[in-house]
């Protein structure tokens, strides 16, 4: 396993720089759109899971049980998956500080030839609003994560909880 701290710092620095220069950036508290329309099951490397698990274990037992059940029964909807960890009433992530790397990069990094995913951001890019933004390289981030081991789907990790 690897330490995620340097990668998290690099991502946080980029996010902070972009948010400073683009005060109207769409990704902000109150927007949970990406958490409600995941293209695929969340996948986590061993270190990402260790960190996420520490966040889960700090939640009240009743919340932990609810999240386990949601992960167990999650299904794909027409707009993709709603993340089973999302507090859908409040629109917040209960494990925000321990969230996976993909959740940290979404909206600030792009994959070549795969678009920007979020329609809100895509519309601003198409309109030229974000021309001066230097997007991060998502493939490079994933390349760094590979050194940590295989990324497994969230339900597989939850199964290891016993
Ligand atoms: S882990 Fe948290 S930030 Fe990531 S998709 Fe789920 S609710 Fe959203």
Shape: globular
Average pLDDT, rounded to a whole number, is 92
Helix content: 40-55%
Task: Spell out the helices and strands N to C.
Answer: HEHHHEHEHEH
Structural class: mainly alpha
Q: What radius of gyration results from the CA coordinates?
A: 16 Å
**Quick one: how many beta strands?**
4
Q: State the helix count.
A: 7
> What ranges have pLDDT less than 50 throughout 5 or more consecutive residues?
none
| First-residue to last-residue Cα separation | 21 Å
Strand order of the largest sheet: 1-4
- Count of distinct structural domains: 1
Can you list the ligands bound to this structure?
Answer: iron/sulfur cluster
Name the beta content range: under 5%
Task: Give the biggest beta sheet.
Answer: 2 strands, antiparallel
Structure keywords:
mainly alpha, two-stranded antiparallel sheet, two-stranded parallel sheet, 7 helices, 4 strands, 5% strand, binds iron/sulfur cluster
Present the secondary structure layout:
Blueprint: H1 5-21, E1 43-44, H2 46-57, H3 61-73, H4 101-105, E2 109-110, H5 119-126, E3 136-137, H6 138-146, E4 152-153, H7 154-159
Parallel strand pairs: 2-3
Antiparallel strand pairs: 1-4
The chain binds iron/sulfur cluster.
């Amino acid at each position: 396993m690897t330490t995620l701290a340097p990668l998290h710092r690099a991502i946080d620095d980029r996010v902070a720089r972009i948010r400073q220069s683009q005060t109207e950036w769409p990704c902000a508290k109150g927007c949970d759109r990406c958490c409600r329309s995941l293209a695929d099951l969340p996948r986590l490397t061993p270190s990402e899971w260790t960190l996420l698990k520490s966040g889960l274990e700090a939640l009240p037992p009743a919340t932990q049980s609810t999240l386990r059940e949601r992960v167990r029964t999650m299904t794909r909807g027409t707009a993709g998956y709603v993340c089973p960890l999302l507090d859908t009433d409040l629109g917040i992530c209960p494990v925000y500080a321990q969230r996976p790397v993909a959740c940290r990069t979404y909206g600030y990094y792009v994959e070549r030839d795969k678009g920007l995913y979020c329609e809100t951001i895509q519309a601003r890019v198409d309109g030229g609003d974000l021309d001066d933004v230097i997007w991060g390289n998502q493939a490079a981030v994933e390349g760094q994560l590979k050194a940590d081991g295989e990324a497994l789907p969230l339900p597989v990790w939850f199964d290891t909880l016993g």
